[in-house]
Amino acid sequence: MVEVDNPLSLLDAVRSQLIIDSDSDSSQSTAVMITLTEAKTPPMSTPLDQSVSTNPSMVLVENTNDREPFPDFDEELSEEHKESDRAYEAAITAAIHEGIRNREIDPAIITPIGQPGTKRATLNRMKDLLSEPHLRIATRKRFVALTNMIIRLDHVLFRRSEAFLDTSDTADAAAIVKPMLDYLRWVDHMLTDLLAVADNVFGIMGFLAEEDVPIIHKYRHMAIVAATHLRKPRLLEQRLLTFYLDLYDEWIHNRFLHMSNRMILHEGSLDPACLTLINCLNEIWEIMSRCVNNYAVYKERLSDIDHEYLLPTFNMIEIPQSPTVEEFLVPDLAQLTLQEGV
């Protein structure tokens, strides 16, 4: 090795080990060839090395394509695997669903004897939904309690006494209705607030879309507003509200509305407790109808925010896949809780 004291002497030492030759005297092109002057051949250190070097047939020939190529994507086979996976998932879900129905729902919700077929069918559909494996345990417990309240209310109003809305039945029915009404009022208030917030966010998105900032910052601001103020809806909760309204209609409201209207026409004046109960039962139906509608409108408003602001803004950014508005949101709506003792 050549020892040098500075970079220039190092360059001179490297140059001294190279031969620079010119292959052409032409003025148009000059080929420069650089070769090492002292190319050393590695020594034959073992008998095997010497044998291989003298016998070419023993030398391993390298193949540039000796690796197995990545298999081509088989779309038909991929679809078969997806169908198989879906079938397995459906079978497992069905088994879990049946287990929840047999162990938890059927023992907790007893269908009274002698009910018409339409009422049994509506209750059975509610039981099936409450047996969904993806339904949160707390939500399942609340709606099991609410379903049993409807069954108890049906017994008190229509089956326990021959007289409609006597003093005892009115008092017992009012005791059942109170926790139902308190809970549904709270749900109604929550959904009304969520819808108002979604409307405000929709308006804010319009101002953010007009900001004179880089598109990535604009999209980030929109995502922060959505994640901070909106809540992710759950399809099962929406279906529960819809099914519960159907159950209330079939078991209580339709028949009670007919009988109470006839009672008012015949008697003219009613006991104040009886009138209060009638108003409460009608309010339950109005609240449930409003909740179902507000939940649907809330989901539509989220879709409007997504398609009118987030998605168009995202399309101006080079990102592989656009997230939906619900991917920015927290997992679910606020906790729906019944009051203690229900």
Quickly list its features.
mainly alpha; two-stranded antiparallel ribbon; 3% strand; 342 residues; 9 helices; disordered C terminus; flat
What does this structure look like?
- By secondary structure, the chain is an all-alpha fold.
- 65% of the residues lie in helices and 3% in strands.
- The protein is built from nine helices and two strands; from the N terminus they run αββαααααααα.
- It has helices at residues 7-15, 47-54, 75-108, 117-130, 137-159, 167-209, 215-229, 235-267, 272-314, and strands spanning 18-22, 32-36.
- It is flat, with a radius of gyration of 39 Å.
- The chain starts with 6 loop residues before the first helix and ends in a 28-residue tail after the last helix.
- The relative contact order is 0.09.
Brief sketch in words of this structure:
By secondary structure, this protein is mainly α.
Main β-sheet description = 2 strands, antiparallel
| Strand order, sheet with most strands | 1-2
Give a count of the beta strands, DSSP E runs of length 2 or more: 2
Any low-confidence stretches, pLDDT <50, length ≥5? 18-40, 57-62, 332-342
Shape: flat
Class based on secondary structure composition and strand pairing: mainly alpha
What is Rg? 39 Å
Order of helices and strands: HEEHHHHHHHH
Helical content, roughly? 55-70%
Into which percentage range does the β-strand content fall?
under 5%
Q: What is the residue-averaged pLDDT?
A: 78
Distance between the termini: 92 Å
Q: Number of helix segments?
A: 9
